[in-house]
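Good day; I would like, with your permission, to put a structural problem before you. A protein sequence and the structure tokens that stand for its backbone fold form the material at issue. Thank you for your consideration; the sequence and its tokens are set out here:
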Amino acid sequence: MRRREFITLLGSAAAWPLTARAQQRERMRRIGVLMSAVEGDPIGLEYVTAFAQALAELGWSVGRNVRIEYRWGAGDLDRFRRYAAELVALSPDVVLASAGSIVGALQQASRTVPIVFVTTIDPVGGGWVESLSRPGTNATGFASFEFSMSGKWLELLKEIAPGVKRVAVVRDPSVPAGSGGLAAIQTVAPSLGVELTPVGVRDAGEIERAIAAFARSSNGGLIVVGPTSSVRRHFDLVVALAARHRLPAVYPNRLFVTGGGLISYAPDSIDQYRRAAGYVDRILKGEKPADLPVQAPTKYELVINLKTAKALGLEIPPTVLARADEVIE
């Protein structure tokens, strides 16, 4: 063997232990993800893809230095509790939670496993954090909106359908978003000359009966408060009932509008999942959820379905169309 080849081989051999040691130093981390959506739901997949892409941009590569365990709760509280226990049993470094009820289930399973939540309503009222600025628990993340935003939904409904005098408010009364959202709408209703009818979402039969009864009188409209897991579970039914009874409706998530609903105004959920990756990165690098402030939305999106508007005989005002982030034709 020539001397130059030997030196090259020796140098390569010397580098092998260094490479091996570098790989050993990069410990595999585990992230749990518990989604409220049904497995395979296109919007849910869009959210987790955005989260994974943002993690990759921060240097976390699946299979190299991180493993992600996904669970899909399908809006079912029993599944939330079961999957929360499963994920905690895997000893994850951090768990991403897509709803307040999921945060509650995870905290029942463990008060030490770090949790980053997204699209969560009223985390203080839900008891998941002590305050927005200093969470003080094993959870932090990104709140979806303030209750005052519910009043804006009623203003938007009147803007696109000025003849509406009666509004059915579809909400889950068992969660803070349901009661708080209804209260905010009740605050602005008198000034807009609107009479409200609360509609619960305990089961499909209750929703169908209540909306059918409401629609027997004229000049009606619909507001869906959320997006809580229970509301999302029945979103296709609510959209179908609004179409059947020709009720102009405002929704709390673009999912409803891409599914045939009229209009939605809500925080940009994909942006929240991307920002959540930043908090997960910081926790994996040693920071504590208790010290990371809960953040409010920074981006909102207005989505309009013109095909649905035409079916309802509505002409969306140009001022509303000009504000839209997405128009479905």
Q: What stands out?
A: The longest strand covers residues 29-35. DSSP finds 13 helices and twelve strands in the chain.
